[in-house]
Amino acid sequence: MILYFSGIMSGLLLLVWSANLFIEGAAAAAVHWGMPPLLIGMVIVGFGTSLPEILVSVMSALQGSSGIALGNAYGSNIANIGLILGITALINPVTVNSRVLKNELPILSLGTAVAGYQAFDGNVSRLDAWALLACFLALIVWSIQNGLREETDSLAKEVKTQMTPGSMSIGSAVFKIVVGLVLLLASSRLLVWAAVNISRLLGVSDLIIGLTVVAVGTSLPELASSVIAARKGAHDIAVGNVLGSNLFNTLAVVGVAGVIHPLSVPPEILYRDLLVMGLFTVSLFILCYGFKGRQGRINRWEGLMLLLSYIVYTLYLVRSS
What we know:
By secondary structure, the protein is mainly α. The chain contains 13 helices and four strands. The longest helix has about 35 residues.
């Protein structure tokens, strides 16, 4: 038992450190290669922070652990909104100015609805998974088009301010990318191995482990990025991390895992976890989009409500297990 708990802790710590290493290297390489700031913010940072989720879900799918694969993806989405944006808004209220981010909000809502529809028959088939990946490819194309066109968007300005061109050589950047990827693979394999064995020993479903320990652990890069961005006043980056990550989880993480091995969807995912994910996503849309002249914003009270809602959901999971 001690060995498996140590494996989870070591895997999570190594996963977070290697993800940050990869993102630093990828962002520095993108700057050297002249990639537009908005594209760096949307693709490199937003999607890069979700590499732990996709690798953990891939490893889970290879081992036939659908619970960890789906729990990791959907649980991370719930944690990103409830835990991460809740904490971020408590530290510093978040204002959304970026037109690009506001355009992503309905896309995320639609992606969440598609996830619920696919899970309704109790299975994410390979055809469902390929459909998710096709949607993800379309999203990447859209992101690239926006990155090349919307140079004056507030998110682009924030990313450009945070970047420090020339602070890292291209050789160091590539080295960090390679080392980060290798360590991400190793740490995700370790984490899945430990999580599966812990769930068997404790008699807890691997879904619960995926929704709680694994989901929160793989979301730590988003937490660090969003909190640091909010403290610096880079509000659009803080929200962009969560939006990009949730889109990546919903479309790419579940898509890749489902292509490797069709995923069975227990009834509780449909009426409990997908329902909670949907409610959090709708709340994010209402708070951040801005209606009737109201600017998109998450104040401290709203952040507290998001955080408390996440705590209640987690306690319910623990109690039900």
